[in-house]
């Protein structure tokens, strides 16, 4: 019997938030680019065609937007960890990875990013 593992990818979610500890970063919102990967067993979702058996990526995305835009962060680590927690919140998620990038954070680089991941034991 096939037991497929669904892999959702929220690709290049572009938001603005207060992030950083320099004075200009504390007073001016900056762009962040978020990528998230969410894995869960998809068997019940495709067998039943019932949304209750799937991970609702729209709900997760809305939570990520609200959290990012309505809070302040000193470190990429904090924002990334918070977003990872949101991605892991559905009980049937088995793995999630979140990358948050700050474009233009370094003079000669396109961006600086931080990635965190988590696995739920089954």
Structural features, described:
One of its GO terms (molecular function) is dihydroneopterin aldolase activity. It holds the Pfam family FolB. The chain has helices at 23-27, 43-48, 57-69, 76-88; strands at residues 5-19, 30-41, 72-73, 95-103, 111-119. It is of the alpha+beta class and 122 residues long. The protein has one domain (5-119): 2-Layer Sandwich (GTP Cyclohydrolase I, domain 2), CATH 3.30.1130.10. The model has no long low-confidence stretch (mean pLDDT 93).
Strand content: 35-45%
**How many individual domains?**
1
Q: Please give the CATH class.
A: Alpha Beta
Q: Structural class given helices, strands, pairing?
A: alpha+beta
Number of helices: 4
Strand tally: 5
Please identify which CATH superfamily we are dealing with: GTP cyclohydrolase I, C-terminal domain/NADPH-dependent 7-cyano-7-deazaguanine reductase, N-terminal domain
Give me the CATH fold name. GTP Cyclohydrolase I, domain 2
Low-pLDDT segments: none
Question: What would the principal axes of the Cα set say about the shape?
Answer: elongated
Would you identify the CATH architecture?
2-Layer Sandwich
Mean pLDDT: 93
Give me the side-by-side strand order of the main sheet.
Answer: 3-1-2-4-5
Report the radius of gyration as a whole number of Å: 16 Å
SSE string, helix = H, strand = E? Answer: EHEHHEHEE
| Distance linking N and C termini | 19 Å
For the largest beta-sheet, the strand count, sense and barrel status come to:
5 strands, mixed
Work out the helicity level: 25-40%
Protein name: Dihydroneopterin triphosphate 2'-epimerase
Pfam family, one: FolB
EC number: 5.1.99.7
Organism: Marinomonas posidonica (strain CECT 7376 / NCIMB 14433 / IVIA-Po-181)
